[in-house]
Amino acid sequence: MLEVRDLYVGYYKDLHILQGVSVAAQKGKITTILGANGVGKSTLLKAIYGFLKPASGEIILDGEDIIGTPTHKRIDLGISYIPQQPGIFRWMTVEENLELGAWTFRNDRARIKRKLEENYERFPMLKDRRKSKAGELSGGMQRMVEVGRTLMTDPKLILVDEPTAGLAKLLSEEVYEMLTRLRDEEGITIILVDQEIRQALKIADYVYVLELGRNRFEGPVEEFTDLKKAFWA
């Protein structure tokens, strides 16, 4: 579905964080990217989403190179992004936050209503709290709002950056369960960047480990059962 080939990306000219990274994400699977802080995991997601322009390399989505495609067009192609830092608007209601995900079709009220109902069916707890301020929710439910907002555009690929950062263990488990359901019940492809190695491996199908901006290891999750490859230190 998505293939990144020999990607060089940086925040400054001639200073590349990613140095020839290649990854592939299979349709309907969770591909997990592991590595120490600063190796380029989040940079990779930003490049795929269009926030960063690669110096060279290819990003192939369903057979087409999307390197030159702007971010808003990548959303139309079915790519969504959930950043590490919470992106909800705390002073707005749950429903208002969800509706922001429908910005590209904001004048189509019938479609917005339909997508809201789909989210409430998917996440009944959000329906119960739809008029509550998002800032009043638990960390896990706030992540649920972010995922629900992302799903308003019917993505086929979701880029997820450290979804449980700062969450308690119980709330973290809820987030991982939610990602698993999106894969198993809805067939959504997920690229997951994570520091919670053990939890990430529990839901992964395929794993890449990056080191200093380059590929170090890769393989099906079964090859990482002893964690020797996943722990890079």
Strand portion: 25-35%
- Which series of helices and strands comes N to C? EEEHEEHEHHHHEHEHEE
Low-confidence stretches: none
Classify the secondary structure makeup into a structural class.
Answer: alpha/beta
CATH architecture of the domain at 78-172: 3-Layer(aba) Sandwich
The largest sheet, given as strand count, sense and whether it forms a barrel, is: 6 strands, mixed
Tally of strands: 10
Widest β-sheet, arrangement of strands: 6-7-8-3-9-10
CATH superfamily of the domain at 78-172: P-loop containing nucleotide triphosphate hydrolases
Kindly identify the CATH topology of the domain at 78-172.
Answer: Rossmann fold
Q: Give the proportion of residues in helices.
A: 25-40%
Computed over alpha carbons, the radius of gyration is: 18 Å
- Shape, per Cα inertia axes: globular
CATH C-level category of the domain at 78-172? Alpha Beta
Instruction: Quote the distance from N terminus to C terminus.
Output: 31 Å
Number of H- or I-type helical stretches:
8
Please tell me the overall pLDDT. Answer: 90
